[in-house]
């Protein structure tokens, strides 16, 4: 039997009940009036008072208030009117209001649906600070549906990224929408997607990465046909968990409905640099990884100026790694980020290091033998192990010493003989 993709909501009444089960607030949706009434007093419990006056819909039949979202501090709200006719019959629109001196004042212009019968505003979500909203238009594009995200920039609601379209015609994507606290992640319900059966429904999660809304994880499909999973969706503040409603699931009886909760991958936790050691033209960076955010870390990025980050090539997930091509005797401040399928972590702590040039090679030196029978040839102080080769009458003799100062005494040398020493270094 065919079911609509949503429970009937025309003439919908919403009630708020306190912990004693007593009605304390009543809101009624008829022809587009959002009205909160609070006449009920319970013993010594404080009265719930209306803030500001009613925020009325623009015109009859607009169904303003079919959806509503609020900022974390309650000073800004978004109101969906999915049958507003601003850009065509039932195109829908959303209006945003900010509480200024006790008055709800519209912020920015109307955010109209794209075309007639888009039903834009059927769902709406808002970031914690009220600067970003997501708007669902489940009727867009042969009812494939879409979601648009807007950010308030200099008083204007400006679209962020492109439209997020439903998978197929009649999916009704955008029937529900939820957003993380910082506005960087959204969940979108498509109540009549057929992924696991006709009208099983599904939810997709998207993360804003470099200005593009990128799907995070796979589709979260409804259990079976006609579940209409995705009629409702909610997201935790950090975007790591979502709840999905499927009102027509039959798990506990016909149309008993159910809710499923899912964990969603996030960006990794920032790594910690433990040391940066300078070598010839390079820095060796040792670090400790943070949690992977529920998705494996695939690479790291580094910065030596605190601004520009370069991905390791080839990709590296183990410690330490080498940053090469640097200038010796130059101090660098190093920070790193971890990368997974969702995106980049926050940057690590900053640790400095200086590439170090190798010890200089000492050129051959000469010593003139005195009139005595024995002359001591003093070697240069060097830090590496070394071998001294002394040539006498072109017949080499050798001596070696592992001490910092090398002195080799040769006998039976004639006065005025020039002796050449060559120092050969073996680096450790």
TrEMBL record:
InterPro entries: FG-GAP, FN3_dom, FN3_sf, Gal_Oxase/kelch_b-propeller, Ig-like_fold, Integrin_alpha_N
Phylogenetic classification of the source organism: unclassified sequences, metagenomes, ecological metagenomes
Record field: transmembrane: 20-40, 402-420
Pfam families with a match to the protein in the record: FG-GAP_2
Gene3D superfamilies per UniProt: Immunoglobulins (2.60.40.10), Integrin alpha, N-terminal (2.130.10.130)
KW Transmembrane (keyword) present: yes
Keyword Transmembrane found: yes
Record-given protein name: Unannotated protein
Residue ranges of domain Fibronectin type-III in the record: 267-359
Keyword terms of this UniProt record: Membrane, Signal, Transmembrane, Transmembrane helix
Organism, as annotated: freshwater metagenome
């Amino acid at each position: 039997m065919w079911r609509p993709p949503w429970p009937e909501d025309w003439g919908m009444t919403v009630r708020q009940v306190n912990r004693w089960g007593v009605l304390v607030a009543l809101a009624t949706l008829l022809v587009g009036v959002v009205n909160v009434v609070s006449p009920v007093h319970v013993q010594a419990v404080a009265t719930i008072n209306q803030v500001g006056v009613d925020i009325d819909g623009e015109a009859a039949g607009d169904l303003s208030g079919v959806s509503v979202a609020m900022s974390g501090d309650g000073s800004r709200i978004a109101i969906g009117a999915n049958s507003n006719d601003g850009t065509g019959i039932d195109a829908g629109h959303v209006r945003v209001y900010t509480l200024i001196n006790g008055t709800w004042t519209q912020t920015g212009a109307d955010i109209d649906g794209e075309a007639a019968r888009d039903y834009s505003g059927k769902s709406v979500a808002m970031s914690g600070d009220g600067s970003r909203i997501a708007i669902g238009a489940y009727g867009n594009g042969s009812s494939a549906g879409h979601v648009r995200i807007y950010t308030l920039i200099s008083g204007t609601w400006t679209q962020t990224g492109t439209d997020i379209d439903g998978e197929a015609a009649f999916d009704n994507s955008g029937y529900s929408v939820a957003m993380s606290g910082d506005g960087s992640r959204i969940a979108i319900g498509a109540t009549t997607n057929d992924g696991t059966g006709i009208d099983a429904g599904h939810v997709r999660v998207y993360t804003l990465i470099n200005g593009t809304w990128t799907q995070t994880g796979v589709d979260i499909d409804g259990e079976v046909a006609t579940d209409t999973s995705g009629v409702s969706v909610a997201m935790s503040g950090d975007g790591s968990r979502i709840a999905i409603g499927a009102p027509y699931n039959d798990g506990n009886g016909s149309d008993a409905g159910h809710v499923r909760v899912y964990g969603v991958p996030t960006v990794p936790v920032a790594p910690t640099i433990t040391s940066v050691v300078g070598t010839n033209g390079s820095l060796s960076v040792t670090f400790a990884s943070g949690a992977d955010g529920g998705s494996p870390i695939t690479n790291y990025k580094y910065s030596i100026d605190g601004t520009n980050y370069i991905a390791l090539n080839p990709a590296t997930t183990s410690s330490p790694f080498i940053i090469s091509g640097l200038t010796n005797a130059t101090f660098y401040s190093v920070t790193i980020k971890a990368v997974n399928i969702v995106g980049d972590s926050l940057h690590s702590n900053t640790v400095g290091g200086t590439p170090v040039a190798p010890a200089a090679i000492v050129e051959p030196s000469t010593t003139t033998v005195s009139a005595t029978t024995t002359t001591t040839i003093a070697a240069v102080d060097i830090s590496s192990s070394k071998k001294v080769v002394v040539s006498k009458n072109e017949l080499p003799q050798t001596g070696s010493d592992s001490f910092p100062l090398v002195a080799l005494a040769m006998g039976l040398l004639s006065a005025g003989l020039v002796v050449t020493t060559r120092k050969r270094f073996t680096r450790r």
